[in-house]
Amino acid sequence: MTAVELPQGRPLERLPARRIRQILCLVPLLLVTVVAVRHRSVLAEGFGHLRHAEWPWLLAAAGTTCLTWVAASFTRQGAVVERLPRRRLLATQFAAGAANHLLPTGLGAGAVNLRFMTVCGVPLARSSAALALYLLAESIGRLTLLAALFVAFPDALRLGTLLPDASAGPLLLGLGGVLVVAVGVLVGVRRVRTALCSFLRTALREARSVHTRPSRVLALWGGSLAFPALQAAGLAAVGQALGLSVPPVHMALAYLAATCAVALVPTPGGVGSVEAALVIALVAAGGPAAVATAVVLAYRIITVWVPLVPGALTLGALVRLKVI
To answer: CA nearest 217: which of 78, 74, 71, 70?
Structure first.
């Protein structure tokens, strides 16, 4: 018998890394398109309100929005000992803002910045510690401003309208349940407990190293205070542009209270939850519901939707250039 060689199929070829990066460059734009289509009615209404606004105040709001990326860059630099390249750091914060509005709260920006720091040569463990320090500093800065404004203007908000009695119970039960589950996992799973202890040691060591350098301390805490202050100032500027009958400082207080209230809501960039909380907070500060809604929609157009496409393009370019 004569042996017959069967034709062999072509082996599966792996996609080259360059082609994968080209595909990843298009993912942010695809996500932007999906999010924009889902919220097209909100976009149409928001742009409609902008036509009747005072443009100098809108330009001020746009300027403060741009400065938030500068403040975020300072805070990110302050959280790590190594000197990060300034221009790429600023571009990364712009791109991270877009990623943050496309993924659940904090995950997009965290992933982009974690990748950026590792590409810059910071080990993964220390990059994660720097990310945790940034989140802690930003939270402390936001809560500090909120507490200071509450002390200075105790009657600026009607707190009963922000958190009705009926919602306090389920909220506390939910937080208690999460805490019990977390403690149970730490007690019962040794591997998780060991990993957490190792991360905490690294984070504390990184925090001590950062705080031995005055320039890093100034960048970290100055940026963490400036970031929410600029966001609140942007909302106040939009309120002035649309004639909201609420003092600007009270609008800033309403913004800080609303963003703190929705910090744990896992929605992409707080889309939906932030708008609702801001409207409730502005009404609690004494503004008419219709005008407060217009202010919130116009504010989110300026701070979220207008930068979203250029931010997504920047994100794709950074992936293509191997910056992240």
So the answer is: 78
List pLDDT tens digits, range 268-308. 555 567 778 888 888 888 888 888 888 888 898 888 888 88
Burial bucket for residue 160 (CB in 10 Å: 0-12, 13-18, 19+): exposed
For residue 104, the cross-strand partners are: 268
Which among 324, 316, 320 has a CA at the least distance from the CA of 31? 316
Tokens 């746009």 correspond to 62
Query: Going by C-beta distance under 8 Å and a sequence separation of 6 or more, which residues neighbour residue 215?
Result: none
Residue 217 neighbours by CB distance under 10 Å? 13
Lookup: tokens for 107: 């995950």
Distance from C-alpha of 42 to C-alpha of 83, rounded to nearest angstrom: 41
| Residue 6, both tokens | 């069967």
Place of tokens 């960048």: 219
Q: Which of 68-77, 86-95, 286-295 has the lowest mean pLDDT?
A: 286-295
